[in-house]
Amino acid sequence: MIRRLLALLAFLGLAALLRAALRSGRRPSAGTRAGVHPGAPRFEGALVRDRVCGTFLPRARALVLRDAGGEAFFCSEACRETHLRRIRPAKTA
Fold this sequence. Notes:
By secondary structure, the protein is of the alpha+beta class. The chain has helices at residues 2-24, 77-87, and strands at 47-49, 56-58, 63-67, 70-74.
């Protein structure tokens, strides 16, 4: 009887250890947001969309082009230049 009780306790202990080991890989560490990868960047404010490639990025990091039509946001200088070429085509001879 005692032997069966000890075997049951050992089994339950191993099951609890296995469960804890499996769950520890999915649980966010202290100081992280639930459901967010620890390496993911933190929220940096309102997001804006690049007019050329459609990438969303924080407004603080975007390149801004201001004109009479308002503001246009870009993720890189290359996207900004592409936009400028589209609205101001080069003159051909």
